[in-house]
Amino acid sequence: MTADQFASTRPWVKNPLKSKSDVAAFLRNVLDPLAGHTSPGGARIHLSHTGTHFDDVAAQLEGFSRPIWALASLLAGGGSYDGTHRWVRGFASGTNPTHPEFWGNMRDRDQRMVECSAIGYSLAVAREQLWDPLDEQSKQHLGAWLGGMNDKEMPNTNWLWFRVFANLGLSRVGSPKFDAARMKADLDHLDTFYIGDGWSRDGPEGVVQLDYYSSSFAIQVAQLVYAKIMEKDDPVRAEEYRNRGRKFALDFIHYFDQEGNAIPFGRSMVYRCAMSAFWSALSFSLPEPPAPLTWGQLKGLQLRNIRAWMKTPGAWAADGTLTLGYCYPNMNMLESYNSGGSVYWACKAFICLALPDSHPYWTSEEEPYPSHLVGTTWAVEKPLHILTNVGGHTYLLSSGQQCSYPVKQSAAKYGKFAYSSAFGYSVPVASLTLEEHAIDSALALSEDNGEIWKVRRETKEARIEGGKWLRSMWYPWSGVEVETWLVPPSPSAPLWHLRIHRIRSSRKLLTAEGGWAIYGQREDERALEPESPNGGYGTLENGPEARALSKAGVSGIVDLSSPTSRTGQAMRTDANSNLIVPRAVMPTLMGKNDGNGQDDWLVTAVFGLPNVEGVEGPRDGWQAEWLKRPEIPTDIAALMTR
Q: Is the model's pLDDT at 5 over the cut of 70?
């Protein structure tokens, strides 16, 4: 069965996902398969036998709690779900210390704390359906269990929001376990993460991590939902959070393409459509859209993203549950905190269902991506990103971010030069060959003839210069420094971006630089072969350039160094390294540095043109664009000739 045939068996195959009732129907299709994985007492949902750094009871609690983001929103907005009783029963069982399905009391830095966020939200917005049916003893148990985190140590990150929401829920149901002082102290501290222009760090000063946790996964969504629930009780803070959301929206919109796909960047990509949950929370919170956006545009941004995931076959297992992966099941990309239940953080995207039927979000017609933003490049100072959708390709250039604590494959998730909504990014599957490293959008260096390769992980001295390009330093070994400029596309060469590297090394090095990883199969699904003179899909290796054509579009890379010093190779990366396609080809440039301590300048032009949604293969006119070459900006060229 092909992927398309498999997709045609999904229960939502004819759902256009246009109206509130459509979204509610799809959500019920998402929740229904969980019944078969739910424990008799309802408190645990077991979805996989994979390991995490926390215990399996907490993993099964994840499976129980995370769908509540969507269920509670559906109920709060006037909807219903026949399986609601499973979660009501689970509240009673999971918080009862004498019940065999008891979740266990919280300890310091306990994963159970994370799950309190969804539970607190559900009590705050859907009390009548989820709290009121509980008997008095069960209410006492649930209150005591949630309040049990108030005297525990928590990580100094977005986790503090989880305790805020636990207390928010406790306050809304009148529990004596509500701790107003604790909630205020947490909020005051979380506000120290704010750095302006709508952006917050995921931690204290010194943290340079501004990924989806700073937006849709946690901080922005939490701020906006809090603002809505507490608009009368905490009006000053609520309006401040709304103002942050208004500012942030004008940056965040550039992370989405016209088809609804978000640019994969950073960790926890397994949460999928939670990447767009900001648009749901913004619509839930604001009385009016942030100018110049409209209700129809906000609706489109959210629904197109959910729709894209609804139509991604590999995101769904045969029984209708979400898989562990991104566009297909993929254990290589996971973090150590990803259980089978983790993926249901995606349910945050359904917060829009909490809006009443009469809200202009639902009564407005869905509008396309704002036309005035098509064909633009946007520099965002706080995360050190330059975003562009010039040439029909939405991607970002990045320098200066790194995870502040150990995360699996953090160099791939934060350190690459570019991240694309169409081509995604790749993670290493092993550490011996370049094919295993999968160095798309990265420069890899080896000082031992290829035994060990290093890519950029910790970036120093990163900055956006004049809103035009990114400039940064990287020091892979003592005696080796790499300075990199990342230049977005120009009007004369809109399908290219430039990477210019100055390498000063006292060690002899091998160099390898990857372009975009692209779907690597022919029309008959066999591996791509060299291009035929008669056309068709295939690869090209021609001196200082390499290229790959497939049903996904065109990807290429060219060495513009003078004199040309590198050789192009269409490298087939190891299976399951790319987030979007399990079999990929990566145009690559291979070279050497003689280690004389002098400046060696590498100039790399990277070409990318994804296919149009619903139309396979490269777009018309790509050949003419391929023959164009981007020019080195005058200011950078002057540095090169000093």
A: no
Residue 487 pLDDT exceeds 80: yes
Residue 563 binned pLDDT confidence (cut-offs 50, 70, 90): confident
Beta pairing partners, 506: none
CA–CA distance from 624 to each of 382, 393, 422, 509, 621 (Å)?
Answer: 36, 17, 21, 35, 6
Give the domain ranges of the chain: 3-373, 377-524+531-640
Predicted local distance difference test score (pLDDT) of residue 614:
84
Strands 509-514 and 496-505: unpaired
Q: How many CA atoms lie within 13 A of 180 on its CB side?
A: 8
Categorize the per-residue pLDDT at 7 as very low, low, confident or very high, splitting at 50, 70 and 90: low
Give residue 599's identity as a one-letter amino acid code: D
pLDDT (mean) for 341-351: 98
**Calpha distance 77→73 (Å, rounded):** 6
pLDDT at 603: 98
Give which of 59, 108, 115 is closest to 91, Cα–Cα. 115
pLDDT in tens, 98-119: 999 999 999 999 999 999 999 9
Distance of CA 53 to the CA centre of its chain: 21
**Nearest CA-CA partner of 578 in 330, 245, 273:** 330
DSSP 209-237: --SGGGTTSSHHHHHHHHHHHTTTTSHHH
Report the alpha-carbon distance of residue 297 to residue 470 in Å, rounded. 30
CATH number assigned to the domain covering 3-373 = 1.50.10
> Using H for helix, E for strand and C for coil, what is the string for 543-605?
CCEEEEEECCEEEEEEECCCCCCCEEEEEECCCCCECCCCCEEEEEEEEEECCCCCEEEEEEE
Rounded distance between C-alpha atoms, residue 58 and residue 63, angstroms: 9
**DSSP structure string for 119-141:** HHHHHHH-HHHHTTTS-HHHHHH
Question: Long-range CB contacts (< 8 A, 24+ apart) of 121-124?
Answer: 121/68, 121/69, 121/72, 121/165, 121/168, 121/169, 121/225, 122/68, 122/69, 122/71, 122/72, 122/87, 122/169, 123/169, 123/170, 123/172, 123/173, 124/165, 124/168, 124/169, 124/171, 124/172, 124/229
The span from the CA of 604 to the CA of 618, in Å, is 22
Question: What gap in Å lies between CA 96 and CA 477, rounded to an integer?
Answer: 55
Q: How far apart are CA 258 and CA 256, in angstroms?
A: 7
* DSSP for 487-508, written as a single string: E--BTTBTTEEEEEEEEEESS-
Q: Residue 223: what residue type?
A: Q
- Give the pLDDT confidence score for residue 198 in this predicted structure: 97
Establish how many alpha carbons lie within 13 A of residue 460's alpha carbon, considering only the half-sphere containing its beta carbon: 7
Cis peptide before 292 (omega within 30 of 0): yes
Domain 377-524+531-640 has CATH 2.40.128: no
The rounded distance, in Å, linking the Cα atoms of 297 and 315 is: 26
Cα distances (Å, whole numbers) of residue 640 to 73, 128, 483, 599: 56, 68, 12, 9
Give dist(CA 615, CA 173) in Å, integer. Answer: 52
Return the SS3 of 607: strand
Residue 420 pLDDT greater than 70, yes or no:
yes
pLDDT at 565: 86
Which two three-digit tokens encode residue 569? 């190779």
Task: Determine contact, residues 431/446, Cβ cutoff 8 Å.
Answer: no
Mention every residue, 6+ apart, whose C-beta is less than 8 A from residue 318: none
Residue with tokens 């950078």: 636
Hey, is 419 helix, strand or coil? strand
Q: How far is CA 292 from the centre of its chain?
A: 25
